[in-house]
């Protein structure tokens, strides 16, 4: 949480539940919270949630070479019926 830049988050982690927007654009994974609830069941105040939403929570993964190699193999990421669906790029040439 410290990466968000608010002094109140310095040296802290958020334990709880969340709903996230996930997308893959040009090989870059984007993860942004839609809603966050603390482990005690209280929603994260909107003033803090607005700050958190300004950051891509997948930045560390995007800067990891091994993770980037895996992301480069994907055409799309979807969440459908509570399932994460990874769609690979078509790596085979089209039939002649």
Number of domains: 1
Helical proportion, percent range? 10-25%
**Overall pLDDT score:** 86
Q: Poorly predicted ranges (pLDDT <50, ≥5 residues)?
A: none
Q: What is the makeup of the main sheet?
A: 2 strands, antiparallel
How would the global form be characterised?
A: elongated
Q: What's the number of extended β-strand segments? A: 4
Structural class: alpha+beta
- N-to-C SSE series? EEHHHEE
Q: From the alpha-carbon coordinates, what is the Rg to the nearest angstrom?
A: 17 Å
Cα distance spanning the termini: 52 Å
**If helices are DSSP runs of H or I spanning 4 or more residues, what is the number of helices?**
3
The side-by-side strand order for the widest beta sheet comes to 1-2
- Which range does the strand content fall in? 35-45%
Based on the model shown, name its key terms.
20% helix, single chain, 96 residues, two-stranded antiparallel ribbon, alpha+beta
Describe the structure.
The protein is α+β, with helices and mostly antiparallel strands. The protein is 20% helix and 35% strand. The protein has helices spanning 46-53, 59-62, 65-71, and strands spanning 16-25, 28-38, 74-80, 83-88. The strands form two sheets. A two-stranded antiparallel sheet has the order 1-2. A two-stranded antiparallel ribbon has the order 3-4. A hairpin with a 2-residue loop joins strand 1 (16-25) and strand 2. The longest helix is centred in the middle third of the chain and has 8 residues, at 46-53. The N and C termini lie far apart (52 Å). The mean pLDDT is 86.
